[in-house]
Each structure stands twice: as structure tokens, then as C-alpha cells.
């Protein structure tokens, strides 16, 4: 029964990881921008959801809208006001990384200053587990996280395969020059990528605020998982990042079945090293020749 | 011309008086977590230290104003050493307030080498008592806290099975060692122990393991935001066993946390309603300023600053310089100190010995005392 319990926990955690990793992978795959501040987007969405719900007393649907709007706005503003000027001046990959890393630190400290540096969580009965069968406890949040992830991925798949902008985003990741030749603006597509990638962190941020709770440094862990999942899934592969996020979440939890609890976080790196050594192209990535 | 001259004279006088204030001031240092996930402790520690400095200055205990120079350790040993280096080598302070077991151990070498007194009021690792003459503790250490809680849980409540969730650092290790040592003689056992990384935030899997071990008591040895996350996730994931911890549970966020209600924790025993003048003044002024009861951490750092003031006052009266070596000699020559909580004395190893109280988190902000145990 412990195995089943850990698997159920792992699926919930994995669903959240999959969404955040897919957001990072979408941005990185389309724009080649190492958006380290993706973790900050997660933290902003989580904090503003908490503030709208607990601080302003808004209905949860409005709180979700506030979180979604703030995440998208933050992502788009970063793209327009920071990454675009750096790229215009032909800043290197490293310059973009350092700038993004700095924004992550600034956001962490700003959130700490505004909302306090301690722990916060949304008080909701949805996070309380009930015993569904002897030894197996599930909370409504478990199911909601998994259903949300499935809905989000279905919507994302539809968007990327059936809409003009979605096809443009996929084309951007393949060949920006060709996109330009077809009269599309890579810059505008980049903004769409940031908006969509940032929106994907929102469900995870909300479920984290309600489930595990948040602190200003919550974005670091998200970024770590997103990065590992992007590499394990295959750089540029959205499907790969999602599967890798799910795999990491499940593996972190199932590790507790037979191993000590201290090995839980190490599983992420064990999986990462395994792929780097034995399958560097990741789950669905293409082999490259340098 | 006259106006210019007047401005110059005023400016010069202002500058001279500023310099003279700085020269007359007596400075001590503090290495506290002021940013990061444990910054909430820094705010708490500062409130106690600042209140003591205010009382010292109001009473004119020293010949100059007492100022505390704060440096940020982020509760990390390496940052703590950088901060301590600055305080000792740049600012030249003779006395530094320290916190957190890992940070305190890291800075103790520099304290000994530079003959600077470091005083801990927040870390509880038992090996903090063995860091040399220049490292003092104004807080009972984990061996006393764990022992008192174990005796209460086993002897008074009849609990036998303990599970430990502990952060993988010197503090967590020391509590694991203490529980392994303390429980068997009482007829209880540590059925499982779960080590977690200091950065871990996801504990639903740990909760599943804890639940499957069916303990009577889950002892949580963590601090900061993490301990709140552990408590919430244990309860959310169906762990119904009694939760217990050490003095880190005395922070306001945990005291107000719904999932923590009913949890047991320990601190040194201080009667907030005591009529002794030092305790009464501390409690009254703290309540007036913050509109709530103080906690033991606040009293510890108040005491740490007060100990300095009392020692420095004695040195000034003897015409001696306020140095780390002289402070140490004066402490050894002083039998007892009038501190918050009553008259106390230091043990030979520089650690205060105090009775331990077991409290229950009851939403009041400071917990309800359910038992007082003599220190081991």
C-alpha cells in the first residue's frame, strides 16, 4: 500500500513538475533564451494567488485570473524590456542567463519584502487527505493537479498544432530565418512563447500554494526541476519535458519506497546524470552532430 | 561672507559631534539570518537584542551608547564566516551574537583565534558547548530540550513509539543522536528517522513513510519555513500522531499555524509573570512595543546583550579595556547574572543551565506550559 501511496503522490508532484517544465521548455525551445526567471514567474503567480484569495478576499476564480495575468505580464515584460534589448545588442547566451538570474534574485527579495519572508499557504480543505482504502490517503488536490495537467497539455497540443500562432512557434524553434521569410516576426512570436510558457506555471503555482505552501525562494526548486526535465526530455521537446517532469516527480516519491528519505531529491540528479551519460539527446530530443 | 562662515562653523561642529558620538559608542556585532528562508528568525533575534541595548542606554550602564552592528549570515555557515570576519577584522568588535548551530560552529574558530566572544542564543546543537572558552551559550542545548520532551511524552503521556523527521545538518544530527540515546532508557524507541535536505519542500512522500511506521510521536527537527511545510504536509497527508519539536517551534508563524495546534515543543523555562525586576521590565516593554508576549528566543538575545553590558560595566569600573579576553576573565569571575528568567550562572563550558518547559501550541502566540522539567 505504501507503494500505491507513493505512486499517487508522485503523479501529483509529477503533474506540477510537467507543467512548469513544459513552460520552460517552450520558451527555451522557441527562443533559445535561458529563462532562469521562470522560477520567479512561478513564485509571483503563487504569491499573487495567495494575496488575491487571502488578502483581498476575492473568489478563487478571480484569484486564479490574477495569478494568470500576473504571470503572463511578468513573462512578456521580461521578454520585451530585458531579453529583447540584450538580443538587439547581440548579447551572448551568458549575458541573458546572468540577467535572468539577477531578475530571479530581485523578485525573491521583493516578494520577501512585500509579503514577508516566512511560509505561506492557502487554507483549503482540498489539501486534506481522506483514506480512500486502508493505508491509501488521497486529497482532492491530488486529482485536481492531475486533471489540470491533462487539460493544459491537451489545450497546448491543440494550440500548437491547430492555430497559426502555434504553428509559428513550432517553426520558430526549427528555423527563425524561415519564419522571417514567411513574413512572420520572430520577436512577436517570442512574446507569445513567453506568454504561453509563463501561463503554464500557473496551475503548478496554485497547487503548490494550496498544497506544500510557499516561501520567496520557492522558485529555485521549480527552476532546478524545469532545467533537469528539459535536458532529460530532450532540449526543445515539449512532450519530452512534460514526460521528464512526470518521471522526476514519480521517481522522487517512489525512491522513498525502498531508499532513505534523503535520496528523494538526489533522484532528480541521478536521472539527469543517467540521461547525460547514456542518452544525451534525452527522451525525444534529436541527436546532434557538432 | 558671514553666512558662509556660519555654515562652515555649524558644519564643522556637526561633523565633530558626529565623530565624537561614534568614538564614544561601544559596539558589538551580531551574525543573524537577515535574508533567505530563515530571515524571520533574524527579525525575532534582533527585537530582543535591540530592546536590551535600549535598556542599557536608557540606564546609562556604560560610558558610551551601546550599538549593535548586524551582518547577514542567511543561516549559512560560509556566509556566517564572511560576516564574522568583517565584524572582527574590520569593525574590531569584542563580542558577537551568533545564531544557528551550523553558523555558530563555523564562526567559533575565528572567535577563538581572534579572542572575540561569540554568544549563541538560537542554535541548540549539543556540541556548541564544546567550542572553547570564547564561545558561550545563553540557551539550553538540544540534549536538555530533547531529554525533557522525551520524559514528558513517555512518562506523563505514555507514548512509546517515536519517529524523527530531521534536517540533514549538524542540528538535525545532534537531535537524532539525542533521541537514540534518550529513548531506550525510558522504555521507548525511535522506530524510524527520516533525513531531509535543508532545501527540501515536498514532504508528502515522507508523510506516507511516517504514517506507515505508525508512531505515537513525530519529532520534527527542522527550522524556518521548512518546519511549517513539514507540519502542514504531515497533517494534510493523514498523519495523526502527536507532533513534537524543540524551541524552533516558538516562532509566531508556527504558533499561528492551524495544522500545528496541539503540537508539543520545549524552551527554557521562563515565567513571563515573574515579579523580578529584570524579567518584568523586559516583558512589560516588549508587550507595550509589540502587543504580544515575548518568546524564549527574544529573551535569549536580550540576555546575551545584557550579559555583555554587565561585564563591560564591571570592566569599565576597574578601568580595564573592553576586549574579548577581559570579558571572558570577567565572566569567569562573576558567579551569577541577573537576567530575564531570574538569577543564572554559566557552567564551566560557557553554557547556561536552565530548567526546560514543555509547551503545547494553543494559538495564543507563545504556547501553553504543560510541564517543567529540571535540566539534565
UniProtKB/TrEMBL annotation, chain A:
Subcellular location: Cell inner membrane
Segments passing through the bilayer: 6-29, 36-54, 60-81, 93-116, 136-160, 189-210, 222-251, 263-284
Keyword Membrane included in the entry's annotation: yes
Membrane topology type: Multi-pass membrane protein
Superkingdom, natural source: Bacteria
Pfam family, one: BPD_transp_2
Key words, A-Z: Amino-acid transport, Cell membrane, Membrane, Transmembrane, Transmembrane helix, Transport
Family: Belongs to the binding-protein-dependent transport system permease family. LivHM subfamily.
Protein name: Branched-chain amino acid ABC transporter permease
Amino acid at each position: 500500500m505504501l507503494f500505491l501511496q507513493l505512486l499517487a503522490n508522485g503523479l501529483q508532484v509529477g503533474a506540477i513538475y510537467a507543467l512548469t517544465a513544459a513552460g520552460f521548455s517552450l520558451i527555451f525551445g522557441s527562443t533559445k533564451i535561458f529563462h532562469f526567471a521562470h522560477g520567479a514567474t512561478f513564485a509571483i503567480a503563487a504569491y499573487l494567488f495567495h494575496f488575491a484569495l487571502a488578502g483581498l478576499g476575492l473568489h478563487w476564480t478571480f484569484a486564479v485570473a490574477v495569478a494568470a495575468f500576473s504571470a503572463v505580464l511578468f513573462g512578456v515584460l521580461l521578454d520585451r524590456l530585458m531579453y529583447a534589448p540584450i538580443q538587439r545588442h547581440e548579447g551572448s547566451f551568458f549575458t541573458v542567463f546572468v540577467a535572468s538570474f539577477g531578475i530571479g534574485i530581485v523578485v525573491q527579495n521583493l516578494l520577501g519584502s512585500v509579503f514577508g519572508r516566512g511560509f505561506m499557504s492557502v487554507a483549503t480543505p482540498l489539501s486534506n487527505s481522506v483514506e480512500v482504502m486502508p493505508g491509501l490517503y488521497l486529497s482532492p488536490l491530488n486529482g485536481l493537479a492531475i486533471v489540470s495537467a491533462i487539460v493544459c497539455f491537451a489545450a497546448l497540443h491543440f494550440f500548437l498544432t491547430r492555430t497559426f500562432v502555434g504553428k509559428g512557434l513550432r517553426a520558430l524553434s526549427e528555423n527563425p530565418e524561415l519564419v522571417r521569410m514567411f513574413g512572420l516576426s520572430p520577436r512577436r512570436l517570442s512574446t507569445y512563447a513567453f506568454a504561453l510558457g509563463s501561463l503554464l506555471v500557473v496551475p503548478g503555482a496554485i497547487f503548490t500554494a494550496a498544497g506544500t505552501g510557499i516561501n520567496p525562494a520557492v522558485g529555485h526548486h521549480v527552476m532546478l526541476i524545469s532545467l533537469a526535465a528539459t535536458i532529460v526530455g530532450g532540449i526543445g521537446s515539449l512532450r519530452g519535458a512534460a514526460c521528464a517532469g512526470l518521471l522526476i516527480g514519480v521517481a522522487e516519491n517512489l525512491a522513498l519506497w525502498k531508499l532513505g528519505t534523503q535520496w528523494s531529491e538526489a533522484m532528480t540528479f541521478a536521472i539527469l546524470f543517467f540521461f547525460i551519460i547514456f542518452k544525451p539527446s534525452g527522451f525525444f530530443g534529436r541527436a546532434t552532430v557538432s | 561672507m558671514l553666512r558662509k562662515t556660519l555654515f562652515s562653523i555649524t558644519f564643522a561642529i556637526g561633523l565633530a559631534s558626529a565623530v565624537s558620538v561614534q568614538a564614544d559608542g561601544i559596539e558589538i556585532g551580531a551574525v543573524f539570518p537577515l535574508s533567505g528562508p530563515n530571515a524571520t528568525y533574524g527579525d525575532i533575534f534582533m527585537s530582543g537584542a535591540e530592546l536590551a541595548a535600549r535598556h542599557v542606554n536608557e540606564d546609562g550602564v556604560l560610558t558610551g551608547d551601546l550599538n549593535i552592528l548586524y551582518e547577514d549570515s542567511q543561516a549559512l555557515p560560509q556566509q556566517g564566516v564572511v560576516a564574522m570576519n568583517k565584524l572582527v577584522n574590520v569593525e574590531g568588535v569584542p563580542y558577537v551574537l551568533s545564531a544557528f548551530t551550523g553558523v555558530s560552529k563555523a564562526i567559533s574558530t575565528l572567535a577563538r583565534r581572534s579572542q572575540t566572544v561569540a554568544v549563541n542564543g538560537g542554535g541548540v546543537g549539543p556540541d556548541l558547548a564544546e567550542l572553547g572558552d570564547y564561545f558561550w551559550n545563553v540557551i539550553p542545548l538540544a540534549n536538555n530540550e530533547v531529554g525533557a520532551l522525551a520524559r514528558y511524552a513517555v512518562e506523563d503521556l505514555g507514548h512509546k513509539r517515536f519517529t524523527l523527521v530531521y534536517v540533514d545538518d549538524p542540528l538535525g544530527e545532534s537531535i537524532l543522536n539525542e533521541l537514540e540515546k534518550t529513548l531506550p532508557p525510558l522504555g521507548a524507541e525511535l522506530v524510524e528517522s527520516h533525513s531531509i535536505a535543508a532545501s527540501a519542500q515536498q514532504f508528502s512522500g515522507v508523510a506516507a513513510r511516517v504514517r506507515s511506521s505508525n508512531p505515537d510521536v513525530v519529532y520534527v527537527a527542522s527550522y524556518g519555513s521548512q518546519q511549517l511545510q513539514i507540519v502542514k504536509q504531515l497533517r494534510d497527508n493523514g498523519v495523526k500522531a502527536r507532533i513534537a519539536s524543540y524551541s524552533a517551534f516558538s516562532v509566531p508563524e508556527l504558533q499561528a499555524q492551524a495544522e500545528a495546534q496541539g503540537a508539543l515543543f520545549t524552551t527554557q523555562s521562563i515565567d513571563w509573570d515573574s515579579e523580578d525586576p529584570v524579567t518584568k521590565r523586559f516583558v512589560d516593554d516588549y508587550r507595550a512595543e509589540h502587543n504580544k508576549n515575548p518568546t524564549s528566543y527574544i529573551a535569549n538575545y536580550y540576555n546575551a546583550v545584557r550579559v555583555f553590558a554587565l561585564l563591560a560595566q564591571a570592566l569599565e569600573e576597574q578601568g580595564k579595556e573592553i576586549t574579548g579576553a577581559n570579558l571572558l576573565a570577567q565572566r569567569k569571575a562573576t558567579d551569577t547574572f541577573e537576567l530575564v528568567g531570574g538569577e543564572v550562572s554559566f557552567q564551566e563550558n560557557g553554557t547556561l543551565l536552565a530548567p526546560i518547559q514543555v509547551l503545547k501550541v494553543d494559538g495564543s502566540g507563545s504556547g501553553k506550559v504543560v510541564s517543567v522539567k529540571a535540566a539534565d
